[in-house]
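User: Please fill in residues for this 255-position structure.
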């Protein structure tokens, strides 16, 4: 890796998959201690791939950095998903194209990074097919701005803004008559869609209602105690998204 030129590659070659292709790309050099990189997936017509919560079927993308050099941490970010009707239910994800931004922190900021990424994902037209891409890209601290920086910036803007953003819609969650169901209304403009992410092995359904959304506990671990559970609500309006945190008082089933 020593002596990587400032004019280094801005993207890896495309890795061909079933009804898809994927590549790594970078925005440029080190900024505020991190690199902005990304994984771009292009999909065949009428084919989708999945968000971190895939919905009723499918699998989320999995990012592995085994074999990378000088990488302390990597955070994968997920652009706002869309909801798609499938024979098996609803899927949450993307059609045509998606780019997952990656925030890469080096161990030694003065040295280049060798980013070796294995991406496991799925593509679905009528049936879901596993796909895998093995990608590599070198990142240098002093690399000039990439011609792909604008594309990365566009997709970064589609990732949910963190909880507490003053521009975010304000959700108000109240219990419904049914046990372990809630109503979600919004102060101000309501988002076009709402997704709810619980702890591991907890699953929640969201459905639009007259005043906002209905939120329903669909599944929880068999040994889960009663009590408060914190959800991450992802509120989506077009290509903009916001996050909010909502504690829910989950009750044991009635005898």
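Assistant: Residues filled in for all 255 positions:
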């Amino acid at each position: 890796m020593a002596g990587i030129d400032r004019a280094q590659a801005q993207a890896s070659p495309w890795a061909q998959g079933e009804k898809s292709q994927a590549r790594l790309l970078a925005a440029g050099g080190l900024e505020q201690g991190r690199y902005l990189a990304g994984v771009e997936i292009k999909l065949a017509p009428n084919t989708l791939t999945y968000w971190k919560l895939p919905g009723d079927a499918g699998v989320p993308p999995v990012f592995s950095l085994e074999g990378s050099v000088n990488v302390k941490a990597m955070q994968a970010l997920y652009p706002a998903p869309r909801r798609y009707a499938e024979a098996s239910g609803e899927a949450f994800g993307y059609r045509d194209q998606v780019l997952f931004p990656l925030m890469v922190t080096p161990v030694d900021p003065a040295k280049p990074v060798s980013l070796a990424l294995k991406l496991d994902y799925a593509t679905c037209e009528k049936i879901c097919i596993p796909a895998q891409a093995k990608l590599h890209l070198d990142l240098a601290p002093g690399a000039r701005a990439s011609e792909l920086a604008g594309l990365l910036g566009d997709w970064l803007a589609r990732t949910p803004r963190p909880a507490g953003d003053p521009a975010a819609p304000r959700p108000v969650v109240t219990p419904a008559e049914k046990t372990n169901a809630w109503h979600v209304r919004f102060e101000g403009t309501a988002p076009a869609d709402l997704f709810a992410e619980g702890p591991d092995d907890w699953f929640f359904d969201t459905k639009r209602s007259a005043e906002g959304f209905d939120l329903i506990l669909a599944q929880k671990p068999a040994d889960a105690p009663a009590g408060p559970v914190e959800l991450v609500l992802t509120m989506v309006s077009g290509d903009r998204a916001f996050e909010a945190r909502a504690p829910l008082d989950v009750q044991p089933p009635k005898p």
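For context: DSSP finds one helix and 18 strands in the chain.
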